[in-house]
Amino acid sequence: xxxxxxxxxxxxxxxxxxxxxxxxxxxxxxxxxxxxxxxxxxxxxxxxxxxxxxxxxxxxxxxxxxxxxxxxxxxxxxxxxxxxxxxxxxxxxxxxxxxxxxxxxxxxxxxxxxxxxxxxxxxxxxxxxxxxxxxxxxxxxxxxxxxxxxxxxxxxxxxxxxxxxxxxxx
Length: 170
Hints:
Blueprint: H1 2-12, H2 25-44, H3 49-73, H4 80-107, H5 113-138, H6 142-163, H7 165-168
Helix pairs in contact: 2-3, 2-4, 3-6, 4-5, 5-6
């Protein structure tokens, strides 16, 4: 467990890549399950349990399919398990860190400047880490990874708004 946390910390600092995770389908599935569970509370602040479950399943499916097709396009399909493990692990960290901040926004009519600043900082950090993982997983240059990250974000948000407008309307 300690080595996993050290590896996660180093990935969050952009010092290690997804290739440093073990190639374990079981570990990937565990990370997916924890990512799913850790994402439910923030969505359940806006909708009921059933919609939150469906929204998290959509989030996971879009990420997994997007990564799969990108890895296929770059002929790197052998990196799928480690890439998903890295993305889910990082996602767990950011969901846990962001939940108290998002809860504070939901509780206040006018959130403080500090809370909004922290959310912005964590969002930029998350974007950077995900982009870095894309760069390392697909063996591409940073500008291409940024474009793919923007494409993933756009696809994910578009599907979320289309399928779950009540989550995104608040």
